[in-house]
Design a protein that fits this description.
Shape: elongated
Distance between the termini: 27 Å
Number of domains: 2
Strand content: 15-25%
Number of helices: 11
Helix content: 55-70%
Number of strands: 6
Radius of gyration: 28 Å
């Protein structure tokens, strides 16, 4: 790592720290204004509010980082341009690629860091922030997250479960009806039990009756039982399906999202929203590198020296507009993915593809 690499990288990281903190502060203030009515109504302790935003901050940082990188590249290289350092570098035969390499390397490292961050940190912090707000601040009962009464669910294996009560913590159901259907939706088997327990990956049904039916719907067998097991393999937490908000889906790990998609498919539900968010968790971190391509190009397109002051302001406006255009493309693409207009993969990667092409065009123009 030579002196020039360290110098450019240091200038970029200083700008990145400043812009990230500034954007994070703006987002937190905006969220605080939005939540103020709830806070005034429930009068929580200040420490709870602070703790809530501490747990929410990692999620905010991931969302604002691409725009911070874009602005930081413009600011750091723009500062070098105003001081005629870019002219001096080019006069010494230093290529554009060598100047841009430290920033692009840092952006690529941040892509990997965010991918890891999304899998380790945010799945830990976001649910805790949600719990603090819902239970500790708003004083709402959180039992809905692990208990259900009068439950009806379609589950894997073309089955339907009815239960008077489900407790996902105690791993049990009470007053259960498990119906097995054929592909033509006719009932082939019915199990009625007073209770069921989930033990070692298997449901054990107690004190009930098992019936099977022929093609005409008549009872073929009638078997009372004290204890009965079946291939029914959905664990208790699989029944606790919620209408998750977007940030809750994005806070899940890829493994958990993949499992939820599989479960929804097996139960005949539409997992399109979950699929879009699954691919978005992979695609969005690459925006850190793609927007860095744009950020390193703009200072070389605009004049340097004293004239750079005006052009830096223009570049700042262009950068902000570019960032919001990128966010707009992401929003439009994901909405098309969720309503089925585009496949989930294409809906989230189309913005990256378009802006990557734009970045390559700008770099070629800069080099020439």
């Amino acid at each position: 790592m030579n002196t020039l690499f360290r110098y450019i990288l240091r200038e970029f990281l200083k700008a990145l720290l400043f812009t990230t903190l500034a954007f994070a502060a703006l987002v937190i203030v905006a969220e605080l204004v939005d939540d103020m009515r709830s806070f005034v109504s429930h009068k929580p302790a200040v420490s709870l509010v602070v703790l809530y935003y501490i747990y929410r901050t990692p999620f905010y940082l991931v969302q604002i980082l691409p725009l911070s990188i874009l602005l930081s590249a413009l600011f750091s290289l723009g500062q070098l341009g105003r001081q005629n350092e870019l002219i001096a570098m080019r006069a010494c035969g230093i290529s554009f690629y060598r100047i841009a390499f430290p920033i692009l390397s840092a952006a690529l490292a941040l892509v990997a860091l965010v991918l890891v961050f999304n899998e380790i940190v945010i799945p830990y912090t976001n649910p805790r922030a949600y719990h603090i707000k819902r239970v500790n601040i708003e004083h709402k009962r959180d039992t809905f997250l692990f208990r259900r009464d009068w439950l009806t669910r379609s589950v894997s294996g073309n089955r339907i479960v009815h239960a008077r009560h489900l407790d996902a913590v105690a791993n049990e159901m009470k007053e259960i009806i498990l119906i097995q259907r054929a592909p033509d939706r006719s009932v082939t088997e019915r199990i009625d039990a007073k209770r069921a327990e989930w033990q070692y990956g298997t449901w054990y049904f107690f004190d009930g009756v098992r019936r099977t039916f022929d093609a005409a719907g008549r009872v073929k067998t009638f078997e009372p039982f004290t204890e009965f097991t079946t291939a029914f393999r959905n664990k208790p937490s699989d029944f606790i399906r919620q209408n998750r908000e977007e940030d809750q889906l994005l806070a899940m790990t890829l493994k958990d999202l993949s499992r939820q998609i599989k479960l929804l498919r097996e139960t005949g539900s539409n997992p399109r929203t979950e699929e879009v968010n699954y691919h978005l968790k992979i695609a969005f971190p690459f925006a850190n590198f793609i927007l860095a391509l744009l950020g390193v190009s703009l200072p070389f397109i605009f004049p340097t020296g004293q004239r750079a002051v005006i052009w830096t302001a223009i570049g700042f406006v262009i950068t902000i507009v570019t960032g919001f255009f990128y966010i707009g493309f992401i929003a439009v693409g994901t909405s098309f993915g969720k309503n089925g207009t585009l496949p989930p993969v294409l809906s989230v990667w189309i913005a990256n593809a378009l802006f990557f092409i734009l970045g390559v065009i700008l770099i070629r123009k800069t080099r020439s």
